[in-house]
Batch of 3 targets.
Target 1
Amino acid sequence: MNLRNLRLLCAALTCLVLWQVIVRAQEPEAGQNLMACRNGFASCNLSALSISEANEVAAAEHRRNVIDCRNGWQSCDRSKLTPTEASALAVAAHHRNVSDCMEGWESCDHSKLTPHEARGAAIAEHERNIGNCERGYTPCDRSKLTVAEAKTAAAAAAQRNLADCRDGMEPCNYSLLTEAESNSVATGERQRNTSHCLEGWGPCDRARLTASEASAVSVAERQRNRSNCKAGLPSCDYTGLTESETTKLAVEEHQRNYNACLKGYGYCDLSQLTVSEQQAITSTSGRTPKQD
């Protein structure tokens, strides 16, 4: 092989290797472009697709358009639907509109209902209005109620108001109560106030207590205070204890302190122990008590 032929062969081999490198470098870019076209991304370059890829992308775009139309989205292009798809879409849209009208959604278009569907939607709307008026919900159009329905709704409203008054809820309107209901509500309020005062929680109006109730509340408060002081709670008011209660509490606290020092468990204040108690602890444990 002469030198000229050898050079030609090397050049051909070099071109072949470079072509393979270029093709392989373009494969990931081509794959990304195909993916972008399949998903309808703006970066899609249709001119870079093969015939089979272009057909695949067109089919994916058509499927997306069908879905958009079925969902009622603005991106829907009805002109690209087949007659069968357009017919199916019209059926689905009609069913969706009937459902919206039956459920009272704003998207309902009454003009597209058949006479039978319109009657059904009107009945459903009337039933919703009755339910809203009876439950105190909005919207409630009382002008659309029959006399019997209006009476039922008024009775339900009266019962709700009575329940609110009995439970001490803010929506209560006392002016709407009968005399018997007012007396019943007043009794419930006094009982609730007495309960709050006795239990020490919730609003308590002492001015509304009878003499016997006020006495019972005072007893309950002293008992709670004794318990709080015995438990060492911050809410304890030592000034509220009687002399005997203070003495008893001191004895109980001394005994608790002694037991803590004796058993080595709990807060122990050695300075509060007598000499004999300290000796007893030493003889029992065989050790000298230590101050915490």
Note: The chain has a mean pLDDT of 86.
Target 2
Amino acid sequence: MKKTNAKRGAPPPGVALELKKVHPNDLFLDPTNPRLAGLDLKLEDQDGILKVLWKERAVNEVVDSIAANGYWQHEVLFATRESNGLVVIEGNRRLAAVKLLCSAELCRKIGATGVPVLSEAEQKAKKLDELPYYECPRNQIWIFYRVQAC
């Protein structure tokens, strides 16, 4: 039997989606993210979601990586348009890290310490001012995962 792994990637052949870019402030963290299972969080509680991701889901590691290397443009976020705007389905820890790197106020608000808040020039140089994303319905995110033989 062949071993397989799910791989994140571009849309599969035959699926036409436009790669878009958006400022991180125009994206919402997803309260239904599997990393937040069992918590009673709502979309409106963005600070609460961010706090849980920071304290319990190792966002500090992502912060360190992005601060040192910039945002890798091939790590595209996947978002769905819901009543309040664009909600990130895949990439919540990356989005959380970017939001923290861009806002000392947000770091203080959720108690995130040791975050090197970046100037606007540094944010632009590290490609944090516009994040790449694909928009798709929540129930179709599975089409972006390809099963490939190892």
Note: DSSP finds five helices and seven strands in the chain.
Target 3
Amino acid sequence: MPWFAVRTFIRIRRIGRATNKDRQYKTNVDLVEDRIVLFKTRNWTAALRKAQLETRTYCREFGRTKNVYGQRLRAEVLGDPEVYEPFDPLGDSKEIYSSMEWVDRKDTAAKIISRKTGRPSGPMARMFMAAWISEGLDKARAHRLRRTTSGASRS
């Protein structure tokens, strides 16, 4: 059976009033996730059906989650999925997805990349992830800082 790469765009919104806002908290922003998921199935139509089911499940999981500000997260699919069948067998250095777009000749590389990737998430990303993930990342960051600081003081 062939492999198919399916690309979907997911919009993640925060629902409810935020508690314990800090300087990283921003109002009036949502997050859009660009996902590519692989499916091994008999044909393009079956890949699309499997992707739609997987995406609904993925979005539903956000509804069971709160961010570090106590807000529920809600995810919704934007537009229709794009299905791509790789030409080569999967393996090291093999293309699994390709998307092409017409661009104005005057567009700079920075403008194109910015449009294709959006703004970097940085610290704001914690508004759109489960609190337990964000808290775990904070603990790991603090641990790395302690190790770095204690290692520097030993030398």
Note: The chain is about 35% helix and 25% strand.
